[in-house]
Specification:
- The chain is an alpha/beta fold.
- The protein is about 50% helix and about 5% strand.
- It has helices at about 20-35, 60-65, 70-75, 100-110, 120-130, 145-150, 175-180, 185-205, 215-225, 230-235, 240-265, 270-285, 320-330, 335-355; strands at about 1-5, 45-50, 80, 95, 155, 305, 315.
- The chain has a five-stranded mixed sheet with strand order 2-1-3-5-4, sandwiched between helices. Strands 6-7 form a two-stranded antiparallel sheet.
- Helix 1 links the parallel strand 1 (about 1-5) and strand 2.
Length: about 350
Amino acid sequence: VSTQSTGDTWVNGGIDATTGFAVLHEIAQGFAPFVAKGWRPRRTIVFASWAAEEQGLIGSTEFVEDNLHLLQDRLVAYVNVDVAADNNIHFKPKATPNFRELLDRSVRKATAPLSQYSNLYVQWQNITEADVPEAATLGSGSDYTAFLQSAGISCLDLPFRGPTYYSYHTEYDTFEYLRDFADPGYKAIKSISEVAAEVLMELSCSSRVPLSAVTYARYLSDTMHRSNLTARVGDQVDVDVLYQAIEDFVEQAERYEEQRDKTFGKKTRNEMKRRRLNDQMMQLERSFTYPPGLPDRPSNRHLLFAPSLLDSYSGAVFPGIFDTLALVQEDPSYWPEVRKQVTLATWVTHSATRALSEDTFP
């Protein structure tokens, strides 16, 4: 299990990325007394700080490229804290969908920066005016990018990000601006530290990898049914096979989670079966990677989530399909590429279904 902060800044970096670095140190300091008393987590926790993030995510990308196979074999999940808090109101996490249940549990245990709310989850609900607030899709712009896009590692990004981060990447991004305007009392930084620590503790200590295949599959199904893809492609592309693949994925994810509930709920231990189920959860995210990458973007190998072509900071779902569809409006010669991307999306979805199957070659 890995948690990260950026080790460099633009100009003064009072918020970006010193707040993330403060969270990293706070968590390590909190774990230190337990380690001193002999505590060891079930899974190793790696604390990392990457160089040259502002120059193009260079440090983290080089690390992933140098250790790609090792990371794919052993890394369960990656927790990113870059800008922990540029305000104390707008909690805006991003995550792969399998993180969502764990994130919700952890946020409910964290202190809200605004004192009128009983915990951070209640503040999140009220500020977003949503009964069930959701984490956004991962895009790019921070060091989780290579872990997700190159290695297929499930990722979580934890920031308070507001609409008015005026000092961003300027000489005014100072400690004084953070202290007096962005996060007086450092309450948002404290909240992020609590959420990240809870997430890391459960990821590293739970016998069952605390990520959810069902949440992942249902998110994909819901998103695709809202996308109006069938109407957008008309009779140019048959997308029924993709929707059937997604339905199969949902059904297999439900069977897999039922099996996990039975296996980890038993008093008797079948360690090999538990290990297999945990390994399947780790490999689920890898199933969505395609080594040649997206069209004209070979570094973006995750076919389900990738930075949007219109805004690299935000994420897109099945970007190969929808980015190419946008090009078709101007040039109909892109239709063959749309068909190819639908085929690839179907293939990786089948791969995810097989990753969760009990059969060696289903």
